[in-house]
Amino acid sequence: MNFTFQSKTKTFMGSKCIFNNKNEFLKLGKKALIVTGKSSGLKSGALIDVKKILSDNGIVYEIFDSIENNPSIENINDGKTIVKIFSPNFIIGIGGGSPLDAAKAIAVLATNDIEPIDLFDNVFLNKPLPVVAIPTTAGTGSEVTQYVILTRHDLKNKKSFGNEFTFPVIAFLDYNYTKSLNSELTIFTAMDAFSHSVEGYLGNRSTVICDFIALEAMKIFGECLQSLQNAVFNDVIREKLLYMSYLAGLVIIHTGTTSVHSIGYSLTYFKNIQHGQANGILLPEYLKINYEYATEKINKILVATGICSLDNFSTIIGKLLPTNVSLSKEEIELYASIAVEQRSISVNPRPLNKEDIKLILSKSLND
Amino acid sequence: MNFTFQSKTKTFMGSKCIFNNKNEFLKLGKKALIVTGKSSGLKSGALIDVKKILSDNGIVYEIFDSIENNPSIENINDGKTIVKIFSPNFIIGIGGGSPLDAAKAIAVLATNDIEPIDLFDNVFLNKPLPVVAIPTTAGTGSEVTQYVILTRHDLKNKKSFGNEFTFPVIAFLDYNYTKSLNSELTIFTAMDAFSHSVEGYLGNRSTVICDFIALEAMKIFGECLQSLQNAVFNDVIREKLLYMSYLAGLVIIHTGTTSVHSIGYSLTYFKNIQHGQANGILLPEYLKINYEYATEKINKILVATGICSLDNFSTIIGKLLPTNVSLSKEEIELYASIAVEQRSISVNPRPLNKEDIKLILSKSLND
Predict the structure, then answer these.
(1) How far is CA B360 from CA A308, B286, B329, in A?
(2) What residues form DSSP beta bridges with A64?
(3) For chain B, which domains are there?
(4) 131-160 in B: which are within 8 Å (CB) of A?
(5) pTM of this prediction?
(6) Which terminus of chain A has fewer CB atoms gathered within 10 Å of its CB, N or C?
(7) How far is it, in rounded angstroms, from Cα B222 to Cα B30?
(8) Measured between alpha carbons, how far is B174 from B14 in angstroms, rounded to an integer?
(9) Do the Cβ atoms of A208 and B14 come within 8 Å?
(10) Is the minimum CB–CB distance between B5 and chain A shorter than 8 Å?
(11) Reported confidence tier of residue B40, pLDDT bands at 50, 70, 90
(12) What is the DSSP letter of A191?
């Protein structure tokens, strides 16, 4: 039994948790930069709540609400300019994974004289500004992980960085902020979280404590599966999905993700398939190709989720994540070439070569 | 679903984990004070390993090895004198709960001009020195909790303090260091950890995430129960017990303990019954008196541990923790008076009054 475990982010879960714990903001200083997307902060209701708390407590703030989906280096650079001028004590990220990751990146740039491209060196002289994370989706786990995933147009891919200093210091998990999410995005983000738990559990960096947390996340995913299939989400299910995403986040802090994410990035970059949808689409074939190498664990996934077989899972995913995208031979060749170079491909139960990845892609999209 | 969760202590689990992660010491500075008991550091082998790592890495150290069992304010004051003179960058606690708690207390006194008695105010101007915790027992969970429990001779009781600054920054969990523990202490400390998981699970501060961790700890306790009854401990069981203790520690960070601990303190103070033994002796009657108020949860405890009934649990405890201590009417009266004043009595499933506590004491010790 060997493991390292830590969950640095002080996490508050519950309806109205930002109001019930508003002192946490005050502890961080009197000047905050809010980092969010064009719509998620507003639509979710989180932005208005945060603004009220900051105003009521005499905390001065500015809002940078131009975070793109899958933010680019260039987008982060705009944030850098703002944070350098405004010079806040802390940063509040509100939104899905994109604004949360952007908040973390901007927090590093605020205290270090480096260019956004240098972030990927993952070495910073100075501690980043503290980040408060308020997710409005239930999927990325970014609210409790160290990871920052940015789009590199120069590489036509996503790249990540993150270390012990890039964890948000606080996360507020209030399912009310996920209620404005439409069914499609609710399903996509849930599939992202489920994929985190599955990849963390099956990857070679899995540990006894992460396995047990991952299985709990999968069990909760199983409890939500009928609602996901019916696309009907009450408060209980919304909260369960947020809790599942949090647990899966605790897992990938330590295990990272594996080939599903590595392969999925190209589907997002080139074909504009949403991140969680991409992962979900790839999951059944990923499980099938790994089955012989991780039979016992994959059987446990089926038991935890209540899914009766991998074929049944394929059927569920086909209905849950319909897509009309299909891939040409050249596209499959290109995406497999990109994926096979990713570090995270190697932390897979079965060693995957380029042909394996091509098979996963063609079976997932073209069959 | 409302909860707060955080596990601040970076925890390394595994055989030789201090050697495999020796850089962690270097990150903390070049001067360390080792705080340990008269024998636990030496007998466990942990002290010699730590000294080797420190020497090999040019870290200067001093050893304060006079920590008593259930350390008193006076004992902590001796540590204060040494830490002020030596002025280390960090503190390494090696041992059971007593040296680990002492290390945390001395870390606070190192950076704050206060007297040991002021520790219980739980407000410190300056951050304590970083503490590295290396447990040599599998029970207290102190290696990952904020709690410091000291003996107050003036109150004839134990008192605790602890806040977000008193968590060890690092914990090294190597079951090899628990192998020198005799059977009796192995059983006593295991009962302490089990009691943490049970009290955390049943107490009014329980949360969904702590419940699921507590149940896992109980499941592992159940897997070790036969070995505990046979008093035969191989490496696998030693490691499981250490892991169980860690998980139970994660629980009580957030839930605290309840009446078992509150009542048990008198048995330790006045009758010299070891802390874990005291908790274990009280557990069956604690569960029985709470059964009507927490039926479903107590049934889940029985399922998780594989114990078939509460009466069966009484029998197991009777054999596992034999004692010839019995209490006079006056003693029961006194201990109940002390316990009923404890804050943690109130976080119980069933509101306990003094008569209830007297009943628990007499049934546990005199029947």
Answers:
(1) 48, 7, 13
(2) A35
(3) 10-178 (3.40.50.1970), 183-365 (1.20.1090.10)
(4) none
(5) 0.95
(6) C
(7) 43
(8) 5
(9) no
(10) yes
(11) confident
(12) H
CA-to-CA separations, B352 to B142, B205, B342, in angstroms, rounded: 27, 16, 11
Of B1, B6, B239, the CB nearest to A239: B1
B261 close to B195: Cβ distance less than 8 angstroms: yes
Q: Which two tokens stand for residue B73?
A: 């304010």
Q: How far is B364 from chain A (nearest CA, A)?
A: 35
What is the value of ipTM here, to two decimals? 0.92
Residue B45, token pair as written in the block: 């082998």
Span A64-71, average pLDDT: 94
Q: What are phi and psi of B28, to 5 degrees?
A: -95, -10
Q: Measuring CA to CA, how many Å separate B41 from each of A114, B66, B181, B183?
A: 46, 11, 11, 18
* Terminal Cα-to-Cα distance of chain A (whole angstroms): 41
* Tokens coding A241: 């999905």
Strands B31-37 and B60-67 turn out to be parallel
Calpha distance A89→A110 (Å, rounded): 10
pLDDT tens profile B41-71:
999 999 999 999 999 999 999 999 999 998 9
Both structure tokens of B3 = 């909860």
DSSP 3-state of A103? helix
Containing A25, the helix (H) or strand (E) segment is helix A23-26
User: Minimal CA–CA distance to B179: which of B102, B132, B237?
Assistant: B237
Instruction: Confirm or reject contact between B291 and chain A (CB < 8 A).
Output: no
**Reported confidence tier of residue A347, pLDDT bands at 50, 70, 90:** confident
Cβ within 8 Å, pair B14-A6 = no
At residue A196, the 3 state secondary structure works out as helix
Q: What are phi and psi of A105, to 5 degrees?
A: -65, -45
